[in-house]
Amino acid sequence: MPLTQLTSIVTPLDRANVDTDVIMPKQYLKSISRFGYGDWAFEPWRYASAGDIDTPKAERTPLAECVFNQPRFANSEILLSRENFGCGSSREHAVWGIRDMGYRVIIAPSFGDIFYNNCLNNGLLPIRLCTEHVEQLFLRSQGNTVLSVSVDVSSCQLSVEGMPAMTFELAPSQQQRLLIGQDSIAQTLDEADAIRAFETQHKQRFPWCFGLGAQ
Amino acid sequence: MLSQTPQTLYDKLWQRHLVSAGSDGQDLIYIDRHIVHEVTSAQAFEGLRHANRRPWRSDSVLATPDHQVPTDNRSAGISGIIDPIARIQVTTLDDNCREFGITQFDINDKRQGIVHVVSPEQGATLPGMTLVCGDSHTSTHGAFATLAQGIGTSEVEHVLATQCLRQRKSKRMRIWVEGELATGVTAKDLILHIIAQVGSAGATGFAVEYAGPAIRALSMEGRMTLCNMSIEMGARCGMVAFDDTTADYLQGRPFAPTGELWQQAIDDWYSLQSDSDAVFDEEYRLDARSVAPQISWGTKPDQVIAINDVVPLAEHGNSAVQRQEWQRALAYMGLQGGESINNLSIDQVFIGSCTNGRIEDIRDVARMVEGHQVAPSVQRAMVVPGSGLVKAQAEAEGLDKIIRAAGFEWRDPGCSMCNAMNPDRLPSQARCASTSNRNFEGRQGDGGRTHLVSPAMAAAAAIAGFFVDIRDWPRLC
Ligand code: SF4
Questions:
Q1: Of the residues A39, A143, A163, B190, which has the fewest C-beta atoms closer than 10 A?
Q2: Chain A: residue whose CA lies nearest to B423
Q3: Is residue B158 within 8 Å of residue B41, measured between CB atoms?
Q4: Taking CB atoms and an 8 Å limit, are B231 and A213 in contact across chains?
């Protein structure tokens, strides 16, 4: 699904180093589907006890203090967190979970490298914003206030009332993919001839890198 | 002619595989080896089928199930997997490998094991290669002067379909280690110490090269342990230059080249070094002699201290964010802060994983526990070999007998309690000495308390019933 512009209230998740083990606990990695992870994401923080892949929603006890269970954030599409968000395991299930909760944008000072790419491969925009700006966004979403933020992918801008517009970085090819919702495999296969040509000379130079040996 | 600018090992590996340079820095690089396991591949194969695509080069792929496989009752094969949903995932891998012509060591194969143990021991990981796997500890393979990176499932599909990965080149970091490790101090202690210094995000965006005399002195097993945990400081890949140790390890492995091709390969592989005047974006230096046995006290891999240090107090954190994190970590771990970790009693011991499930690790454990007994206060102590071949080798050396006689369970190969996807799990609040790589909340079981240590430290803790400074242990070497 393309992502061009978005205005949404922000869910403030005030934690640093949120790892993908917490975002999507191991028992949900058994699924062989790409969808349906929304109720499982952040389970240790959202529910009173751990469930499994076949636990009915009605049997889960949501923890009222968890931001994800607060009705005012129910329709939020922008998640705000602290540094090193999505560190640890490469599991893309973590991104599928956040996406299936309804989020399209994650704002944090920094992200785990693999997680960052996983987001972009699922039409989710990870925005790196400096620590000071992130701090301001947190301050402005404290207590009972909800903060609304607008994101514009074509200009790479983030705007919040009462703050100067903020620009974020995004590689043009990734920006393009978000804007048109393009499949990255199709994009790469446009270069199939170049890949084949490379492969031929690579095999001449390093024949032992090909096949699984003489076994 | 190649450029004359001095290059790092990472630059050389990158340049060898560069198919096309993206105008925005997103380059297309060719992938030589792709390793696949059951947990992160099903959706990728499904994607291929959906788009009517075939793998670009099936012979680049090696598969084996590891996360879900039970570590007992393996003669039952697939039906030994109790959880029906997990069983489907493993049979899905079987089906996909069959459909797409991929070599797999399945659950019944004696070569099955943890992907990062199996590929090197088969010689499927070779110097100068680019290697990927849908698993963050793929950095392990960098020990062979390989550019090895963990990827997500969409990227698994991308590599299957195109044999390429699109990515931005990382910055370069070198970690130079002088001196020699003290007796009883291992590669595991060294990497835990490094992570504590660099921080759990300190190497994000970097490709790390480990170099210096202390690294040269490490065995391949030790180098793999080191590279394995690069991701725990944020680095997608870690690597060590090629040398005789690498060559000796690889010679005669099933998938390694032989005869004339071996000679040709070796000649090439010796060039897999950073040029002496190459420039790194960041450099750390440390002296191996200053490294004591390490242990993690918290729930992040950089929350690590020397065994003879005290657990930090939350109020000593250097920022509000860190103080809050430490507070939370201490509470989760059932610690106050300020206490000595030496003498802290434990409930369970887990020895295994892609960090420390290799033959050298098991030899270390056997040497430590020979003639001793697991303390009665320890509810469970298990040794899980990293692969079927590691297990067979250990048994051929009689190590399993020593380990069993000491009261440990001797299990079948797999990830096991490293991330507790199979039935091996820590009960809530159980304190575990673990040779794995992550001490995240709930990683080894809901509410479980993980302390990351070396195999020797874990073995000694099992016997004593509490953590001990391995340097005081009588059976040391
Ligand atoms: S042993 Fe642990 S870290 Fe290694 S691949 Fe298995 S689950 Fe991942």
A1: A143
A2: A27
A3: no
A4: no
User: How many Å apart are CA B435 and CA B450, to the nearest integer?
Assistant: 9
CB A127 within 8 A of CB A107: yes
CB B174 near ligand 1, within 6 Å: no
Name the maximum alpha-carbon separation found in chain B. Answer: 67
Which tens digits make up the pLDDT trace of B241-264?
A: 999 999 999 999 999 999 999 999
How far is B353 from B437, CA to CA, in rounded Å? 8
Identify which has the larger pLDDT, B474 or A177.
Answer: A177
At residue B2, the pLDDT reads 52
**For the whole model, what pTM was predicted?**
0.96
**Residue B439 structure tokens:** 């001490």
Identify which of A27, A76, A82 has the alpha carbon closest to the alpha carbon of residue B328: A82
A88–B438 C-beta distance less than 8 A: yes
Tell me whether A112 touches chain B (CB under 8 Å). Answer: yes
- Angle at which helices B220-228 and B187-198 pack, to 10 degrees? 30
How many CB atoms within 10 Å of residue B362? 29
Nearest alpha carbon, ligand 1 atom 4: B354
- Residue A1's pLDDT band, with cuts at 50, 70 and 90, is confident
Flag if A84 and B134 touch (Cβ within 8 Å): no
Q: 3-state SS string over A126-182?
A: EEECCHHHHHHHHHHCCCCCCCEEEEECCCCEEEECCCCCEECCCCHHHHHHHHHCC
CB contact under 8 A, A195 and B150: no
Ligand 1 mean position to B436 CA, how many Å? Answer: 8
CA terminus-to-terminus distance, chain B: 51
Q: Which positions in chain B touch A122 (Cβ < 8 Å)?
A: 154
ipTM of the complex: 0.94
Over residues A50-60, the pLDDT tens digits come to 999 999 999 99
Whose tokens are 């657990």? That residue is B311
- Residue of the CA atom closest to atom 6 of ligand 1: B415
Which residue, by CA, sits nearest to atom 2 of ligand 1?
B418
CB pairs under 8 A between A and B: 208
* pLDDT tens per residue, range B356-408: 999 999 999 999 999 999 999 999 999 999 999 999 999 999 999 999 999 99
Q: B267: part of which helix (H) or strand (E)?
A: helix B259-269
Backbone torsions φ then ψ of B284, nearest 5 degrees = -115, 145
The answer to whether residues B167 and B27 touch, using CB atoms and an 8 Å cutoff, is yes
> Mind telling me how many Å the CA of A197 is from chain B's nearest CA?
9
Collect all residues of chain A within an 8 Å Cβ-Cβ radius of residue B205: 113
